[in-house]
Each structure stands twice: as structure tokens, then as C-alpha cells.
């Protein structure tokens, strides 16, 4: 399998996600809600569902790797995170599917844009 080298993604605030659909970005926002379901976990940024600016999606088969790195994802509520990935539109909402916990960062200070 070939490794694809991607240039550094543009950093944006999650509320600007509508302007970056289909683009690979580093999107940052405050975790307003973590919603766990049997097959999928949503990390909703800025506001709870259904008004989130961007949903970070972690599938069940990837969840253990995220919990090994961050603990229970509900503990991220209220914290600022940045996630690297492609913004997609799904059923009228914006989301970013996360496959690797290295693409999710817990921010301890305000990044400069």
C-alpha cells in the first residue's frame, strides 16, 4: 500500500466548515457534546446536536484506539480540540470521519491562525 504524503492542512475554526466541504483541514472547536451509539460516536463541536458546527465521527471499530489515547471520550466535553480530516456533508450536517487518534488533538492553549 502506497503512503500518500499530504501537505499541511489549512487550520480553521469549526464554524467555518461550510466553506471547506470536501477539503482536508485542521478544524478546531470546543466539544459541546459526545454522543455514543452502538456503531458510532459523535463528537459535536461548538453546540450540541442538531446545531453542531461540525461532528467528528468515530466508528465503533476505531473507538478503542481513541479511548486508549484520551480515555472516555465524554471527558472531552468542554475541552478544545482540533481534528485533521476531510469535511463531508451527510444528511444536511457537516462531519469529519476520524480513523486514527493521531488526527485528534486536545488543545491546551488557543492556537494562532
Structure characterization notes:
The protein is mainly β. It has one domain (25-105): OB fold (Dihydrolipoamide Acetyltransferase, E2P) (Beta Barrel), CATH 2.40.50.140. The protein is built from one helix and seven strands; from the N terminus they run ββββαβββ. A five-stranded mixed beta barrel has the order 2-3-4-6-5. The termini are far apart.
Q: Overall 3D geometry?
A: globular
Distance between the termini: 34 Å
Major β-sheet profile:
5 strands, mixed, barrel
Please tally the helical runs, counting DSSP H or I stretches of 4 or more residues. 1
- C-alpha Rg, in Å? 13 Å
TL;DR?
The protein is mostly beta strands and 113 residues long.
Topology, pairings included?
Blueprint: E1 10-13, E2 24-36, E3 40-45, E4 54-59, H1 60-70, E5 80-90, E6 93-98, E7 104-106
Q: What key phrases describe this protein's structure?
A:
single chain; 113 residues; mainly beta; OB fold (Dihydrolipoamide Acetyltransferase, E2P); 1 helix; 43% strand
Amino acid at each position: 500500500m502506497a503512503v500518500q504524503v499530504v501537505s499541511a492542512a489549512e487550520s480553521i475554526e469549526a464554524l467555518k466548515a461550510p466553506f471547506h466541504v470536501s477539503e482536508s483541514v485542521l478544524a478546531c472547536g470546543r466539544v459541546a457534546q459526545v454522543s455514543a451509539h452502538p456503531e458510532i460516536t459523535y463528537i459535536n463541536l461548538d453546540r450540541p446536536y442538531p446545531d453542531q458546527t461540525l461532528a467528528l465521527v468515530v466508528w465503533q471499530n476505531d473507538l478503542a484506539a481513541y479511548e486508549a489515547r484520551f480515555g472516555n471520550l465524554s471527558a472531552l466535553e468542554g475541552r478544545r480540540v482540533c481534528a485533521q480530516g476531510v469535511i463531508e456533508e451527510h444528511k444536511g450536517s457537516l462531519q469529519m470521519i476520524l480513523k486514527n487518534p493521531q488526527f485528534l488533538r486536545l488543545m491546551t492553549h488557543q492556537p494562532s491562525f
